[in-house]
Amino acid sequence: MSDARPDLGLLELLVAIDDNGSLGAAARAVGMAQPNASRAVRQWEQRVGLTLIERSPRGSTLTAAGTVVVHWAREVLADVDRLLDAAAALRTDRDAELRISASMTVAECLLPAWLGDFRRVHPDIKVQLQVRNSLQVFDRLLAGECDLGFVESPSVPDRLHSATVAHDRLIVVVDPAHPWTRRRRRLTIAELAATPLLVREPGSGTRSTVDVALAEFPRAEPLLELGSAAAIRTSVSSGVGPAVMSTLAVADQLDRGELVAIPVEGLDLPRTLRAVWRPPRKLSGPAGQLVSEIVRRR
User: Fold this and answer.
1) How many CB atoms lie within 10 A of CB 255?
2) Distance between CA 236 and CA 213 in Å, rounded?
3) Which tens digits make up the pLDDT trace of 149-185?
4) Which end of the chain is more exposed for a tag (fewer CB within 10 A), N or C?
5) Global pTM value
């Protein structure tokens, strides 16, 4: 009987015949031309082998079989309405969630304040934050696994849109006892490149920026690869070795004298920190609200 299944428009027409007392009035009520309405009912009667309406000059009335069919048609249409209401509720719940992937510097140094302000204004929006490196953030966005990303990478894939949310700068830091703190002349880029450094893993925005800046010089192998700015910061202050880090990540340690910034001749590494998202270009919903509030407060 699958070929006899009516579409919802036909069910609405049958209910309208019962409500309005004639096929013509029913057709007008559902926005259908009367010849089309008459043909649709007649074709379905033929498919199911039942006469549903009695046609007369005074109008159309339901047969006994038609009355039963219309009763169930009303039930089906009510179930469809409930289905649509449930889908709308699910969409509302989804729209009230914000899935964020953020690179380490942004997640550690900026997002706590941003999200704190956002939650005070939008307490009903659930925020999920996962910390990844910049490359992983791009991958998650392109796979549809998050709604919004924050990265410190020097470039953004063509398939994504972006907006500037902050700026920082990369600097060389060492512990106070490191020999570089007693140098009388500035460190050169070549010397920095030739020095084993504490670095983030490949795919990190900080790692990518440093690799680009030192690409023309012979490079030493990394001293250690570590998965977070906090781990690198602790290792540097413990005397393990030098590192190139964001000013956002080491500001407090520099102020307390736990780390020392080492100037490098001819090396300046400003960075643009970005929000990134999938098309369309205009960001909407909770993600759009968050980015708009961050940009407005810059």
Assistant:
1) 9
2) 21
3) 999 988 899 999 999 999 999 999 999 999 999 999 9
4) N
5) 0.65
